[in-house]
Amino acid sequence: MGPVTLPATLPIHEVIPEVKAALAARPLVVVQAPPGAGKSTALPLALLDEPWLAGQNIVVLQPRRVAARAVAARLAEGLGEEVGGTVGSRVRFESRVSERTRIEVVTEGILTRRLQRDPELRGVGLVILDEFHERSLNADLALALLREVQGALRDDLRVLVMSATLDPELPARLGAPLVESAGRAYPVEVRYLSADPVGRVEDMVAAAVRRALDADEGDILAFLPGVREIRAAQGQLRDVDAVVLPLYGDLPLAEQRRALLPNPAGRRKVILATSIAETSLTIQGVRVVVDGGQSRAAQFDPGTGLSRMVTGRVTRDSATQRAGRAGRTAPGVAYRLWSERTHPLLPAARPPEVLEADLTPLTLELAQWGAPDPSALAWLDAPPAPRVETARALLRDLNALEGAGRVTAEGTRLLDFPTHPRLAHLLNAASDPALAADVAALLEERDPLPGGSGADLTDRVAALRAWRHGRAQPGDVTVLERVERLARQWRTLLNVRAGNAPPDAFAVGELLARAYPERVALPRERNAAQAPGRFLLAGGQGAALPEGDPLSGAHALAVAHLNAGSGARAEGRIFLAAPLDRSALESRAAWVDSVRWDDRGGALVAQRELRVGALVLDTRPLADLPHQARVSALAAAIRAEGLHLLTFAPEAAQFRARVASLRAWRGEDWPDLSDSGLLPTLENWLGPHLAGVRTRDDLKRLNLLPALQALLPWNRARELDELAPTHLSVPSGSRVRLEYRPSGEAPILAVKLQELFGLGDTPAVNAGRTPVLLHLLSPAGRPVQVTQDLRHFWNSSYFEVRKDLRGRYPKHPWPDDPWAHEPTRWTKRRGV
């Protein structure tokens, strides 16, 4: 191949010298170029002859298969070749490369596989990450791995990050120079609805397409959230004077090309597409965009470990990308099926996928890379630690990770399958690989059976096999075609023929249990007879089948698809499952000692349980209750129900209050004996005193004072008695108990006022710093005055009290001069 000459009409041509200079000087460069500038289809060709490339290859990453194939075709066309020559492509289950290939356009998982097998990327001089603004999980992973390769193994490897729109902080975060292309875009007139619509998006899009066909020129690109909506809109547009074509990721290559290329007969086209058509692809002839305003993406719930496809509003940056498709080759029009006042209220952009997605595949990749701790790599946004731990737990269940996070031999084999580790585990070493291929394909595709067909996946396998052999069945033929195409690819990988026999339901269930070990399920025992169809999953979640589903009476289930439910105790709804032989559960079970608190009975339950996660298959009494297990169970019960399970006798309560007062008066070097301070450390301070405790009554009878006293350092015990004494001596000779308050307020000294005659200074604690709060009592023990200023009381209020009480208590002394009278706790007759 000779030197490549680019047409000067491409806007990217103006910045190519700058890109070349930047890559010659720096290993990492960022290019921003609007859609249509030619960055994807021209820039790789322009860099092929650069001296720093030295005959090595270029790998171009595209986030989607449709775009990868289209970009490869355009690059090859620019050289007057077919894909597979100088330009090749690799996507899932499809490779079109040869020994002559210098540019490989690949989807992101393909590069990750190559890096895992050859971290040095021998023979590759440049990796281009295209459409990086989408911030897909695989793109972030690829960038993190490539930066490590550059730092540790290949200082000559170049990485070019390309994006249509850009986070302005990205170049600085990467420490990379930025090259910007002005691009070329024709004006696009944006038309909004007068009010936000109500109804199905496919109906609104079909109606808008009809209006556009009458009012505007050129082909039409309409955006819908998914295949179901595309098919529905396509059905409504059968009678229009245009060729109506779908465009989505799983579409066969020939049908994708029909959507992307001009109609051979010159007829107008209407392309009904998912979000894959937002970027990368320039669809020739498109002058009109109809944006339904919705998109569909996987959303992961770390609390349940489930991902589900969620349809939501389009983001503002995606709406901009979609509208721009109408101005790639000529002025255009964009119909937005929402009101103009709603537009500013749309989300600005989707968060990076690494912050929202199921991290199981990424976590396994990192373990294989030798970085089980994600923080070892340089991320733009680090994977959230709780989600990484959720992923590790699943991978341990799949036997893909060891306890320390290192990849197992099984985990390494799972990475050879271009799919999620769950399905890879289902396919790997399956006893019936042909059945495994069918089940895996069905799990990856939409349900081929109509609504109301029940939840049993076995029926879907039977429908697929019947359709495969030409027998009539009620399934959606379009979906079955896609399922069979995928199943055929799995069979090729596994080197097996298609299965013909009617599927064994328990075999299907066993395969599901391999993929979803935390979703094996048993009927809820208390409701199995009265309310069949309610199950408990091994992961602890409740789930239910639709009423009357044939699987409701199953003795065990393996569940594939369900929703998470809503609310703290809500059950999920099971959409896809298969019956499971209990012997399959028993083969996975292990005996464990279980000691737990029964809050209804108010007692510990100690038994050996044959368990699969939260499922208990059998129980035996546990004769010897280990002390630590007792302590852990009781501590958990107290935390759940509160410290009111314990009885703090007056001495224990006052000990806590005395320490709390000194903590308030003198600082936090005194221990925290509040509820919030005691609950986290129950095992330490209460554990040694729980021997023999099994019931709520046993807990109530515990003497907590010794346990609390043990929390006080030995050198503080005497200090406590000095600074916060339990009693004070008063002038009468009595030792009167103090009442301390945990809030740190002054302690209360309740004493008959006759016992304080002659005392001028209010008694104090805390080395004289904290006067007590005197509750001066009548002879009957009722407070007649509350004060912290005793001297003022004798000189003023005492005379009002004396006037009021001496007639009521004539046997007690009520002197005219309280300063001179002998303090006493007795009446006049007894004397002092």
Radius of gyration, taken over Cα atoms and rounded to an integer in Å: 38 Å
Average pLDDT reading: 90
Outline type: elongated
How much helix is in the residues? 25-40%
What percentage of the residues does DSSP assign to strands (E)?
15-25%
Spatially, the strands of the biggest sheet line up as 4-3-5-2-6-7-1-8
Global structural class: alpha/beta
CATH classification, class level of the largest domain: Alpha Beta
List low-pLDDT spans: 2-7
Number of helices: 27
Q: From the coordinates shown, what is the CATH architecture of the largest domain?
A: 3-Layer(aba) Sandwich
Terminal Cα span = 122 Å
Number of extended strands: 31
**Do you know the CATH topology of the largest domain?**
Rossmann fold
| CATH superfamily membership of the largest domain | P-loop containing nucleotide triphosphate hydrolases
**Total domains, how many?**
6
Which SSEs are present, and which pair or pack?
Layout: H1 16-25, E1 28-32, H2 43-46, E2 57-62, H3 65-78, E3 87-91, E4 94-96, E5 103-107, H4 108-117, E6 124-129, H5 137-152, E7 158-163, H6 170-174, E8 178-180, E9 188-193, H7 201-215, E10 219-223, H8 227-236, E11 243-247, H9 253-260, E12 269-273, E13 286-291, E14 294-301, E15 306-313, H10 316-324, E16 332-339, H11 360-369, H12 385-397, H13 409-414, H14 421-427, H15 433-444, H16 457-468, H17 477-494, H18 505-515, E17 520-523, E18 534-537, E19 542-544, E20 557-562, E21 572-579, H19 582-588, E22 590-598, E23 603-612, E24 615-621, H20 627-641, H21 650-666, H22 675-678, H23 682-685, H24 696-701, H25 705-709, H26 714-723, E25 727-729, E26 735-739, E27 748-752, E28 764-765, E29 770-771, E30 773-777, E31 783-787, H27 790-805
Parallel strand pairs: 1-7, 1-8, 2-5, 2-6, 3-5, 6-7, 9-16, 10-12, 10-13, 11-12, 13-16, 19-21, 27-30
Antiparallel strand pairs: 3-4, 14-15, 17-18, 17-20, 18-19, 20-21, 22-23, 23-24, 25-26, 26-27, 28-29, 30-31
Helix pairs in contact: 4-5, 7-8, 11-12, 14-18, 15-16, 15-17
Biased composition (Basic and acidic residues): 812-825
Domain Helicase ATP-binding: 20-169
Region (Disordered): 812-832
